[in-house]
Amino acid sequence: MSRENGRLTVLHLSDVHATDGALLYDAVDGTARLRSVADYVRQAGATPEAILVTGDLVQRGNASAYPMVRDAFAALEDAVGVPVLTIIGNHDDPDAARILAGHENGHARTVLLDALRFVLLDSSSGALGEEQLAWLRAELAEPHGEGTVIAVHHPPLGSPLPTLAKAGLRDADALLDVLEGSDVRAVLSGHFHHPLAATVRSIPVFVGPSLAYHQVMDAGPDHVSGHDRAMFSLVHLLPEAVTSTSVSLESPSPLFLSPVTR
């Protein structure tokens, strides 16, 4: 696994927007793209400790897609050989999503994977709320192993796009108050459909790109638009740093292919 190289790796997926029946925008098959992620891991030789999916698992109005999504996550887990951890987003149906592994008794939970702690939050309403924040404070009261990764669909900051500048977590300051001074190594989010890296109150925040589509960054101040581009991230937790690298599922022909001398 990655820890043999001195790092812990999280494969960070987000915004699958799976549908049941017609493809999203007549082009996007979310569950097929999950299968493509498994192909990438095999071909690239990636060795993640976990796969984390930060919400909008299905497109709004497609609650009947959850059984298909559940099976796709199970297949991805089997193919890669590591746990697939999921949270829900604003497009998800909190009741229908209980069919997913780990969501049977609620959507906010803690998962321990050896020395790494994942705290999975529910911001499907756009905010966390006082009750969930109090639970989170209690969870973080004691540090764990090599630290904690927070997963929340809505980032605790805004996008640089004018149309998404106020689309982050509504109670972001309250969340950051809880996280400040804890053992949190990084916050992983989605929602914006474009990658974003920031440091907020000394906490690294990484917004993962979307498996469904990528925001057109020059669409103007009054529009949102999407490229048909499927992307995800590789997050590496190093002893003294955290990095996030965006990866595209597109496979253009390489300009060169050279062996690496080790």
From TrEMBL:
Domain Calcineurin-like phosphoesterase: 9-195
Keywords: Hydrolase, Iron, Metal-binding
Annotated GO MF terms: hydrolase activity; metal ion binding
Keyword Nucleotide-binding found: no
A Pfam family recorded for this sequence: Metallophos
InterPro entries: Calcineurin-like_PHP, CNP_phosphodiesterase-III, Metallo-depent_PP-like
Keyword Hydrolase set for record: yes
UniProt superkingdom: Bacteria
Similarity remark: Belongs to the cyclic nucleotide phosphodiesterase class-III family.
Name of the protein described by the UniProt record: 3',5'-cyclic adenosine monophosphate phosphodiesterase CpdA
Species of the source: Microbacterium keratanolyticum
